[in-house]
Amino acid sequence: MQISALVIFVTLFYSARLQAKEKITVAFGEILAPWVLADTNTGIIIDIFDSAMTPLGYEIEKIYLPYARRSKAYKNGTVDVVSDMNSNTIEKYQLQGYMSEVAYTYQNYAFSLSKRHVQLTQLSDLEKYSLLSWQDATVHLGADYALMAKNNPRYSETFDQSMQVKMLFLERFDVVQMDATIFDYYRAKIAATNNIDMTQKVDRQAIFGASPNGFMFKSEKMRDEFDRRLRHLKANGQYHAIFERYVRNY
Description:
Layout: H1 2-19, E1 23-29, H2 44-53, E2 59-65, H3 67-75, E3 81-85, H4 87-93, E4 98-99, E5 104-113, E6 131-134, H5 137-140, H6 143-150, E7 155-158, H7 161-169, E8 175-179, H8 180-193, E9 202-205, E10 210-217, H9 220-236, H10 238-246
Parallel strand pairs: 1-2, 1-3, 6-7, 6-8
Antiparallel strand pairs: 3-10, 4-10, 5-8, 5-9, 5-10
């Protein structure tokens, strides 16, 4: 009986260990709706990652950090995966690891109030205007953008992208530079909860181009699994459905 009990115990012990989920700690943006909704652990980027990795048996721990702190957390080993990565950020912060395929793409625009008659044909034109951008844009968007920011004494960045929208409509800045989906989301939200006049006509000028992004992994195995699952999500329509849940005409 004692031997049988021991065999059962050992079998159950190792069975439980085999069934235990491997944890992944992932750093996402802090204020980045609807791409990231930290208060509900949802959003486009989060749902893409969850949909790819949860079916493989991983337990996903999410932490939310401003842009610059995300890269540092990855570099010092606090997190296993970091979002919003491209070749510029990897080079700037000298990150070591395995970059995923493009997982999502921001569409960045220069937004200005129409009554300001802001005319932009190239990046250097922004040097003439007060401009509020998002944290680490000078790293993420490359050398030409960084040069423009350096030559503009009225250039600023903020980690809170809702503040960009508020500052535009309060006429504190001539231009804000941000993703169109984020702009539309916060414009509608602020209009519903604030006394700021959000009805003014806005011009949006596409002088930045698309900004493709992905995830940086410590583990090559996890990166390969993510890429395989990402391709599957795109092929079966689940990827498109994630965007449909969040992207709408606000």
